[in-house]
From TrEMBL:
<feature type="binding site">
    <location>
        <position position="110"/>
    </location>
    <ligand>
        <name>substrate</name>
    </ligand>
</feature>
<dbReference type="Pfam" id="PF00248">
    <property type="entry name" value="Aldo_ket_red"/>
</dbReference>
<feature type="site" description="Lowers pKa of active site Tyr">
    <location>
        <position position="79"/>
    </location>
</feature>
<dbReference type="InterPro" id="IPR036812">
    <property type="entry name" value="NAD(P)_OxRdtase_dom_sf"/>
</dbReference>
<dbReference type="InterPro" id="IPR020471">
    <property type="entry name" value="AKR"/>
</dbReference>
<dbReference type="InterPro" id="IPR018170">
    <property type="entry name" value="Aldo/ket_reductase_CS"/>
</dbReference>
<protein>
    <recommendedName>
        <fullName>NADP-dependent oxidoreductase domain-containing protein</fullName>
    </recommendedName>
</protein>
<keyword id="KW-0560">Oxidoreductase</keyword>
<dbReference type="GO" id="GO:0016616">
    <property type="term" value="F:oxidoreductase activity, acting on the CH-OH group of donors, NAD or NADP as acceptor"/>
</dbReference>
<feature type="domain" description="NADP-dependent oxidoreductase">
    <location>
        <begin position="17"/>
        <end position="285"/>
    </location>
</feature>
<feature type="active site" description="Proton donor">
    <location>
        <position position="54"/>
    </location>
</feature>
<dbReference type="InterPro" id="IPR023210">
    <property type="entry name" value="NADP_OxRdtase_dom"/>
</dbReference>
Length: 321
């Protein structure tokens, strides 16, 4: 069995989940995804992490129903898409219907920024979320208040926990000024090249559990060739990926790596125990500027709300992290 972390709701979240972002759906892909997810559940995964923005809640729900594993043993996360922040009730009902799995375990506000409907999602967007961007859309405080109402009142029982994703310390502090419910989870990009030590520590103190997405660095395959990770891997006769995931779980964050390959699916749920020295060694990797990256962020111009690019370092984004 995969060990779990306790959320501030009392629910248990498996330490390793399956990330369901598989790129855009296409011909033949839908069944492939269902098969891959059923396989993941069969090899032992109990947490499936999807999002409205991934356009595959239908397939994720189908895999849950087909797996033969009791619903109560599975944990399903989905996310309110950035284009849906204006009407969370409608968005929740769509997700609920598409998944068709009796209840949603965890519903996250996908980004601290959102877009208007007519932008069609990740296009030229309008920012929401931060107070100084209020004229461009609802703040994330307002969106969160609607999510709280869905969770506590209007759709009580249909969603077991609510949380956020891609929130910085600054974002969480702005949210805390108006929130009634502390997010159960903040799901962020985190891996040895982006350890987010401060944010992880902050969330621990606030009782907000961190789930790391792209825990293997996703587009930065060099993590697999990393000299420190491989040095440790060799000692334990495992791969660098196993070291990265074991480090993440050992420091108290759950992970949602994705793989469609059965061998790697199994590898990623088989973690090892690192020594204190080895934990330190991984903790310090990102001190090397060549091994410190943020891979997966979009940057929004404060004045216009336009998306400027995807790399914070290039754009000097100062509104969030
Ligand atoms: P594949 O599906 O062929 O296994 P991330 O979770 O950080 O976004 O990374 C996902 C990518 O890493 C996918 O391309 C996946 O490919 C690959 N991957 C997943 N697990 C492993 C592993 N244990 N070793 C090497 N590559 C992996």
């Amino acid at each position: 069995d995969i060990p779990s972390f306790n959320l501030n709701t009392g629910a248990k979240l498996p330490s390793v989940g399956m990330g369901c972002w598989q790129g855009q759906p296409g011909p033949g892909r839908d069944n492939e995804l269902v098969d891959a997810l059923v396989k993941a559940i069969n090899v032992g995964y109990r947490h499936l992490d999807t999002a409205t923005g991934y356009q595959n809640e239908g397939e994720v729900g189908q895999a849950v129903r087909q797996s033969g594993v009791p619903r109560s043993e599975l944990f399903v996360t989905t996310k309110l898409r950035p284009g849906g922040v204006h009407d969370p009730v409608k968005e929740f009902e769509n997700s609920f219907k598409a998944l068709d799995i009796d209840y949603i375990d965890l519903w996250l506000l996908h980004w601290p920024q959102g877009f208007t409907e007519d932008d069609g999602g990740f296009g030229a967007g309008q920012a929401c979320g931060l107070e100084h961007q209020k004229h461009l859309g609802p703040t994330f405080n307002e969106t969160w208040a609607k999510m709280e109402d869905i969770f506590l009142n209007s759709h009580k029982g249909k969603v077991k926990a609510i949380g956020v994703s891609n929130f910085s310390i600054k974002n969480l502090e702005i949210l805390a000024k108006t929130s009634k419910v502390t997010p159960a989870v903040n799901q962020i990009e985190a891996h040895p090249y982006l350890p987010e030590h401060e944010l992880v520590e902050y969330c621990k103190q606030k009782g907000i559990h961190i789930t790391a997405y792209s825990p293997l660095g996703q587009y930065n395959a060099s993590i697999h060739d990393d000299k420190d990770l491989n040095e440790i891997a060799k000692k334990h006769d495992v791969t660098a990926a196993t070291v990265a995931l074991s480090w993440a779980v050992q420091r108290g964050t759950s992970v949602a790596p994705k793989s469609t390959n059965e061998k790697r699916m199994k590898q990623n749920i088989t973690l090892i125990k690192l020594s204190d020295e080895e934990m330190k060694q991984v903790n310090n990797i990102s001190h090397d500027p060549k091994r410190s990256t943020r891979l997966n962020f979009f940057v929004i111009d404060k004045e216009t709300g336009k998306i400027l690019g995807w790399t914070m370092e290039e754009m000097g984004w100062d509104v969030g992290f």
